[in-house]
């Protein structure tokens, strides 16, 4: 095994993964720099979710290597990978994945509660993020009483509350209206940049990808393009957030 470059928080080499013979990834190599917002784009079925699952340790690729902070993830057992995901990564899916029995703040505090952080400290951290996402007043509500856009803000708050090294966001705004989509993404990227959190964002939406620092394009399980975005986009992503992050 060759050690990855020092400034890559995530580094993957020659990832191959297929589902019953049908290819998901066909030799993808990728480095994600510490603190960057990286968009992975491409049409539906090109392998974005499979790539994020491999990079985050949810899926072990059939071939290839994944490293996090120079530690091999592909050789870890399930328990170590689970611990890595719980302690160092955040995940935002297209559909908010919330626990229906828990209130808004309990859902947002879950990463800290699972790590054994005190109830009080977890609630304080979660509440701060909920307020920054403009849903502080909903802290005691249960998910089923809220709008989809409010539930997705809880998912974003939960990802940030855990102070992760990396947030993986898989089409996080796919179910939202245009205005809400842009605002939520800007809030996420601004918060990540100000807290030094790396973001790997899968999207088929060019407008969403434009908020990233760099865009990697995929086609049929392969990486086909790599574009660093100009400073203007970066500036927009940093400054246009209306929330106090
Ligand atoms: N669990 C699975 N079982 C079988 N085939 C799968 C599975 N997951 C993904 N695939 C297939 O692997 C390929 C890549 O899928 P993947 O979900 O990674 O792409 P994607 O770019 O994220 O697509 P989408 O935007 O629709 O989520 C597709 O052809 C898909 O049908």
Report on this model:
Belongs to the ABC transporter superfamily. This is ABC transporter ATP-binding protein. Keywords: ATP-binding, Nucleotide-binding. The protein is of the alpha/beta class and 245 residues long. The protein has a domain of 163 residues: Rossmann fold (3-Layer(aba) Sandwich), CATH 3.40.50.300. Helices cover 36% and strands 27% of the residues. Helix 6 links the parallel strand 7 and strand 8. Bound molecules: adenosine-5'-triphosphate.
* Distance, first to last CA: 40 Å
Biggest beta-sheet profile: 6 strands, mixed
Q: Which parts are unreliable, with pLDDT below 50 for 5 consecutive residues or more?
A: 232-245
Biggest sheet: strands side by side, in what order?
Answer: 6-7-8-3-9-10
Q: State the oligomer.
A: single chain
The total of beta strands comes to 10
Question: Which band does the percent of strand residues land in?
Answer: 25-35%
By helix and strand content, what is the structural category? alpha/beta
- The dominant shape is globular
Number of helices: 8
The kinds of small molecule bound in this structure are: adenosine-5'-triphosphate
CATH superfamily of the domain at 8-96 and 166-239: P-loop containing nucleotide triphosphate hydrolases
Family: Belongs to the ABC transporter superfamily.
Organism: Streptomyces mutomycini
Protein name: ABC transporter ATP-binding protein
InterPro entries: AAA+_ATPase (IPR003593), ABC_transporter-like_ATP-bd (IPR003439), ABC_transpr_LolD-like (IPR015854), P-loop_NTPase (IPR027417)
């Amino acid at each position: 095994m060759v050690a990855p470059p020092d400034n890559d928080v995530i580094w993957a080499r020659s990832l191959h993964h297929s589902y019953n013979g049908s290819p998901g990834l066909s030799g993808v190599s990728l480095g994600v720099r510490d603190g960057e917002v990286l968009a992975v784009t491409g049409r539906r079925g090109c392998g974005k979710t499979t790539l994020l699952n491999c990079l985050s340790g949810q899926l072990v690729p059939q071939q290839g290597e994944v490293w996090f902070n120079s530690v091999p993830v592909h050789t870890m057992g399930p328990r170590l990978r689970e611990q890595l995901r719980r302690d160092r990564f955040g995940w935002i899916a297209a559909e908010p994945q919330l626990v229906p029995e828990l209130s808004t703040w309990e859902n947002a505090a879950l990463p800290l509660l699972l790590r054994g952080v005190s109830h009080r400290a977890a609630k304080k951290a979660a509440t701060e993020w909920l307020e920054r996402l403009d849903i502080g007043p909903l802290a005691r509500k249960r998910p089923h009483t809220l709008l989809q856009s409010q539930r997705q803000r809880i998912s974003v708050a939960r990802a940030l509350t855990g102070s992760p090294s990396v947030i993986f966001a898989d089409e996080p705004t796919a179910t939202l209206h245009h205005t809400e989509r842009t605002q939520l993404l800007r809030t996420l990227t601004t918060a990540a940049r100000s807290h030094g959190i790396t973001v790997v964002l899968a999207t088929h939406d060019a407008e969403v990808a434009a908020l990233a620092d760099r865009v990697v394009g995929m086609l049929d399980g392969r990486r086909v393009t790599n574009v660093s975005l100009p400073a203007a986009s970066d500036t927009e992503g940093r400054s246009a957030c209306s929330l106090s992050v």
